[in-house]
Structure formats: C-alpha cells, structure tokens
Backbone:
C-alpha cells in the first residue's frame, strides 16, 4: 500500500507502507501507480517525492510473491511511467533502497539519501538480476566498472560511497523527507530531459571488451556453478553495447530464464531459511520469543590455539572485553602476537582502530572469575575439558555461562562437572573462527533457555549466523559429515581416485572436494578422534588393519596415511602431494595411486568403474539420510537449520539451497530409491539404510520442504 499527502502546497508525497521493509508487493505497486497518476493530474502539484514509512525506503520486490502467481501492476512499466513523468520525482532514501527499491529510485529524476542509508542491487544473491531496468540504468548512471561490481556481487554500499559513484545526488544528516521536499520545490521548474537515466549513453572505459572478459572469467571461477552472476555480466554487457530498448529486451530474456530456475528457488528458500534459524525452539517448548537473553559485558576464552585465537578476535572486534587465558607462557606469548596481528590486519581492512585494548591476557584461570560468559577452547579431549569445566565452576561467579567450543563431544558430560549445569551450552565455532559465519549453539538436556538465548544473542552480536541444535555426537554438521567422508573412502577402496571424487564434488559446487578439504584441515585431527574411540587400531591377531569395526564396514585408509606421517598440507603429503609442507597447491600423487592398488590387492578388492552419479549419490545421499535422522531425533528443529549449517559451515553451494533442499529438488522418492539400491549393494554400511522419516515423507506424498515439520512432528510423537 502507499499513502498520498500534499506537503508545502505543491509537493505530492507518496509514502510506501508495507512493513517491515516496504517491499514492492502487488498492493504497493498498485498504490504507486495510482498515486503517481493522482500527483500528475493535480495542477497544484509541481513535483513529487517518494519515500517509505518507518525510516525505510524500500527492500525491493516482495520475495514472498515470487513463488506464486504474480499479480498487480508490473514493475518495469511502473518505473518507466515515473521516469517519463512531466513533473520532477525525487526519491527520499532512508534506511535501505535495495533491488527493486533502488530500481524505483533510479527511475526517479533525483535521489536524496540519508547519510546512514545503504543501497544496492542484491538480486544476484536471490538467483536473479536487476530485472526492472537496474542492469540498464545503473551502468548509464555510474559507469560500467562500478555497475558490474555492484550488480555481480550484490553488495550494499553506504550513502557516502553512493554519492561518490554519482548514484545519489545528495546526502543529508537531517530529516531526509523534509530535505527531499525542499529539493523537490527547488527543482519544480527545471527541465527533466537530462534527468532521465534511460536516455543517457552508457559510460564505458576504452578497454571495455577486456573488462567484460576479465569480469566474466572471475565470475565463472567464483560462481561455483551459479548462473545468476553470469547473467548479470551479460545484462550489463547489453547495456554497454546496445541501445536502451534492446538492452531492456536482453535484460527481460535473461531474467525470464533466471526467474524460473531451480537456482533462484534454492536461493530464495535460503533467504528465508537464514531468517528462520533465528526463530529457534527447543524440544522443551522454549522458544526465541519467550526466552530473554542476559547481557554479556565481559567474555573469556580459555585456550589460545587456532580456535581460541579466532574466537578472541571475533569477540574483541565486536566490542566485547575479553580475558584470554593460556596456561603455558610460550604459547601465551605466541597467541598474543598472532591475535594482535589478526586484529591489526582486520582493522586495516575495515578502516578502523584495532581493538587491542579490549583483550586482557592471563595464564591463570582465576582471571576469568568475573566474566559473564566463558568459552572453553582447549584441545578436543574430554578428560581435559572436564577438568577445565570443574575449575571454571569453582572460580567463576555463579551466574557465569560456561560454553564449550567442542566440535562434537557430549555437552551434558561437561555440564555435569559444574554447579550450574543449566548455564552450560556448546558454542561450536568453525575455523577460522573470526571469519566463518556459522555458530552451532548446542543445548544439552540441562541447558536452560536463558543460556541458549544468551549464546544465540552473543553469536548475533559477533556477526555469526547462529543455529540452535541438540546434543549428540558431532551435533548437526559433523554428524552429517561422517557418512559423507566414509563414502568417499569406500569409493577409493572400490576404484576411485581422490582427484576424481574431488572433481565431482567441486563440479557440484563445493569450494573443495572432500580429500582436498581433509588435507587442508589435517588428517591427524580425525585420526586422534578415531584412536580415542578405539577405531583406528590394527587388528590384534594379524597386526593388519581390518575393514570391519563393530560389525560395520570400516575403511582404515585415513589411518594408514597418518601412520606414514601423511597429515595433509602441513606435512606436504596427504591425499595429494605438495611442493613443501604448508603449500596449498595439491598435485596428484603417484605414490598414493600405487598405495591404493596395493591396498585393494591386499584386501582382494576388485576396482570397478565409478562414475559421477555414483560419487554424488553415495556421498550426498548418505549425508542427507543422516540429516533426516537428525530431524527425526529432534537434534535440528527443521530442514532450514541443517541447510544453513551446511552452507555457512561446510561450503555447500548456496545456489543448491543446502542438502535437505537439494533432496527435495532431486525428489525424495528418488533419494529413497537410490539409498535402497546402495544399501542392498552394501548391507554392512548402516548409513545407507534409508531412515524412517525419509520413508514416511515419501509415503506422505513427498510434501514441499516447508511442510516437512508437520510430518516430523508426527514421526517424533510416534517414536
Ligand atoms: C520482478 C522481480 C524483481 C526483483 C527485484 C528485487 O527487488 S529482488 C529483492 C531484492 N531485495 C533484497 O534482496 C533485500 C532482501 N532483504 C534484506 O537483505 C534484508 O532483509 C534487509 C532488507 C537488509 C533487512 O535486514 P534486517 O536484518 O534488518 O531484517 P531481516 O533480514 O530479518 O528482515 C526483516 C523481515 O523482512 C522480510 N523481508 C526483507 N526483505 C524482504 C523482501 N524483499 N521481500 C519480502 N520480505 C522481506 C524478512 O523476511 C524478515 O521477515 P521475518 O518474517 O521477520 O523473518
């Protein structure tokens, strides 16, 4: 909806009214069309201002409308009509002007922005392009290089940057609507021909063809199979090479392809999934909207290894006072130096002062006594962590939240070491912790809603996407990773090479295949865990590693590599070879190929031809099957939680929506049928056995993902 008022006698003020972000719903578009006609028809009105209510100009097209039948006046003619108007139209931009919101402003003859406003064309992040003339007007206004940057990245820019680009005409610290009204009065008699952006020539640098080629190559390299960034480059190229009308036609064609694509659906699902995880709930019924967090002023981090350092930096950068504890003097000095370096580099990038003074370093655990929240980040060893929690419980004030950065150990066992187990939660960060967006907030059976709410809010304040999950081995992310890694090893046993498996997964869209990722994170990490679990042990009778553990198929390949000191990049050898330890350039290793041949011969394994389909299905469907088990067990509240965890924590390609959304797009019946097929072929691999929830969903007619929660609730109540 939109409201019309006449201000200062001669200015028609159109206010968009559609909370929370004044998105351009059918009703809003209708309102704009009607009210523009009214303003143009009133002889007293000499100029028009368009603004949005509640200090927000416009968040763009209403994304909720995309899934259904579009109705109401279309955006393109509406914006053309504004640009063609005989009276000056001024956009008063407060808060945000994004996507269709900025395209609307580009159709206006002038743009006045508040100094705190942000503008951008983020359509690419939704699998689209700025298809309401944005791809044609923006390069005409600010030039091809800047337009390519904004449109292909979707990044938001500040008002100051927008002014520098010439994207807005003026910025103000005062009431933007008042400033825009005065401005509109001043320009009421000015000719408009020079203000219609669609009539501008497109500003191109002399080497524009080279520029397009370079940008296209960069986009293809980084898009990981996403089609929208490529279409964005093509649309801007049309602006640079074609007259406006033909450019618009090209924009329309490209948009039509994107709009109905699976990628756009996946990205739009993911947009709402990201927001859904903030509305967390626990099986007890506690929820985000009924659980109040307690403010955290002072935080502490125990253990300053790689994870502890990253967490300390994330907290300090967000303005928290941090006590950083490392008991060994040498490690403490080293950590202090590294943390200061990280803070200084981060501050330089962001153009701010480094938050060095936010951190107090100490060797004694007593120094965290008055912290409101402590994050333990010592080595992943239950006995050690238990000892730290006992100490923390003894020294900290009774109200202190005690959190563990464990990547999969039992939170309940840690909680049991403390006087106040209800204040214990897991805060599972991902390396590097000051960069990676994901935080799993893990509640144990004793964790209070207060503790979960506080950890979730802290996560938000330090810029993380926080997902509340239940307590089980590996939580959500690492639990699902286990069958994925396991299948990758089995594929090697059966004839594949690490290069082939990685190539298939990277073509699917992962930033790194499973073996390159394993080399990067270090093979020894999982080896130590398997040893602690009694898995990575040679067979006591033969001294040879067996391929069976606890009645299930087991691949000792990773253990055998570790026994040879092949820990990945850090030792210069792993699933690949590297020029030197620490190098990141992975090369196929003939030694590994012979090793695999010998291994297969020793175990009488006959290598067979493994194709793309088998790699994808076995790795991904086994992981997805575990995802369904996680939903069934109530460890994740819904499929969105799993998908957000996988995109932000495990480099799952966002344009495929996340593993659970991917399962829905493939078709649940197909996933079920292929799992059944593989389980029949490998009955000693329980992760391939389709789980009850998957069967139930298929039996319920494979409802859309938004309806899964209803089936999950029924399945859980039957268990
Ligand atoms: C014909 C096709 C044309 C397409 C052109 C387009 O315009 S595509 C849309 C382009 N716009 C965007 O991509 C903006 C998307 N929104 C955001 O980036 C952010 O929401 C925001 C506007 C920067 C606000 O961020 P903030 O953190 O303050 O709030 P939330 O993200 O939590 O959002 C609040 C609620 O508003 C809903 N919402 C936001 N934008 C839209 C939108 N464009 N359409 C519909 N709904 C939108 C969001 O879902 C939140 O709703 P809740 O119900 O509260 O979760």
Residues:
């Amino acid at each position: 909806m939109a409201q019309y008022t006449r201000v200062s006698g001669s200015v028609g003020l159109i206010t968009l009214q559609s909370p929370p972000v004044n998105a351009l719903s059918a009703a809003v578009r209708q309102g704009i069309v009607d009210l523009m006609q009214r303003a143009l028809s009133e002889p007293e009105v000499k100029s028009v201002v368009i603004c949005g209510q509640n200090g927000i100009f416009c968040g763009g097209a209403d994304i909720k409308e995309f899934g259904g039948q579009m109705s109401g006046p279309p955006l393109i003619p509406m914006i053309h009509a504004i640009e063609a108007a005989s009276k000056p139209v001024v956009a008063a931009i407060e808060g945000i002007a994004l996507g269709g919101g900025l395209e609307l402003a580009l159709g206006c003859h002038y743009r006045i922005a508040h100094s705190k406003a942000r503008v951008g064309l983020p359509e690419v992040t939704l699998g689209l392009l700025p298809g309401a003339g944005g791809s044609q007007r923006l390069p005409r206004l600010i030039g091809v290089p800047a337009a390519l940057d904004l449109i292909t990245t979707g990044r938001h820019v500040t008002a100051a940057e927008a002014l520098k680009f010439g994207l807005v005409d003026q910025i103000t610290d005062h009431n933007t609507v008042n400033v825009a009204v005065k401005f509109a009065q001043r320009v009421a008699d000015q000719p408009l021909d020079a203000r219609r952006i669609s009539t501008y020539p497109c500003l191109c640098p002399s080497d524009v063809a080279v520029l397009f080629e370079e940008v296209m190559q960069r986009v293809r390299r980084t898009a990981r199979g996403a089609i929208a960034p490529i279409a964005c480059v093509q649309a801007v190229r049309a602006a640079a090479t074609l007259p406006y009308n033909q450019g618009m036609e090209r924009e329309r064609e490209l948009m039509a392809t994107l709009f109905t694509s699976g990628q756009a659906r996946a990205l739009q699902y993911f947009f709402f999934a990201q927001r859904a995880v903030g509305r967390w709930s626990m099986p007890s019924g506690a929820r985000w909207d009924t659980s109040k967090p307690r403010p955290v002023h002072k935080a502490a981090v125990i253990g300053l290894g790689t994870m502890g350092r990253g967490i300390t930096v994330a907290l300090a950068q967000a303005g928290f006072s941090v006590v950083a504890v490392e008991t060994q003097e040498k490690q403490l000095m080293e950590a202090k130096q590294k943390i200061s370096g990280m803070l200084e580099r981060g501050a330089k990038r962001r153009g701010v002062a480094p938050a060095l003074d936010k951190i107090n370093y100490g060797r004694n655990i007593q120094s965290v006594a008055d912290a409101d929240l402590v994050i333990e980040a010592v080595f992943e060893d239950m006995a050690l962590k238990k000892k730290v929690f006992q100490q923390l419980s003894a020294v900290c004030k009774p109200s202190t939240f005690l959190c563990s950065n464990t990547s999969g150990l039992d939170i309940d066992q840690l909680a049991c070491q403390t006087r106040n187990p209800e204040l214990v939660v897991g805060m599972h960060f991902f390396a590097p912790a000051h960069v990676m967006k994901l935080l799993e907030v893990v509640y144990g059976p004793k964790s209070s809603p207060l503790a979960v709410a506080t950890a979730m809010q802290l996560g938000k304040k330090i810029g993380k996407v926080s997902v509340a999950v239940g307590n089980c081995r590996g939580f959500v992310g690492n639990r699902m990773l286990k069958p994925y890694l396991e299948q990758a090893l089995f594929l090697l046993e059966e004839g594949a090479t690490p290069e082939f498996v990685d190539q298939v997964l990277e073509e699917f869209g992962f930033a790194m295949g499973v073996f390159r990722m394993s080399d990067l994170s270090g093979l020894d990490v999982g080896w130590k865990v398997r040893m602690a679990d009694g898995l990575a042990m040679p067979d006591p009778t033969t001294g040879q590693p067996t391929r069976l553990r606890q009645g299930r198929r087991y691949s000792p390949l990773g253990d055998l590599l570790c026994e040879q000191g092949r820990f990945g990049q850090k030792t210069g050898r792993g699933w690949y070879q590297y020029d030197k330890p620490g190098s990141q350039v992975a090369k196929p290793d003939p030694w590994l190929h012979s090793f695999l041949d010998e291994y297969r011969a020793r175990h009488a394994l006959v290598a067979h031809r493994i194709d793309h389909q088998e790699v994808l299905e076995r790795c991904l469907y086994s992981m997805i099957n575990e995802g369904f088990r996680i939903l069934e067990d109530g460890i994740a509240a819904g499929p969105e939680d799993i998908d957000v965890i996988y995109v932000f924590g495990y480099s799952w390609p966002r344009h495929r929506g996340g593993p659970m959304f991917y399962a829905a797009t493939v078709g649940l019946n197909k996933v079920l049928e292929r799992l059944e097929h593989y389980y029949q072929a490998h009955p000693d691999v329980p992760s391939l056995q389709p789980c009850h929830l998957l069967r139930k969903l298929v039996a319920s007619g494979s409802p859309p993902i938004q309806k899964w929660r209803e089936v999950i609730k029924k399945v859980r109540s039957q268990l």
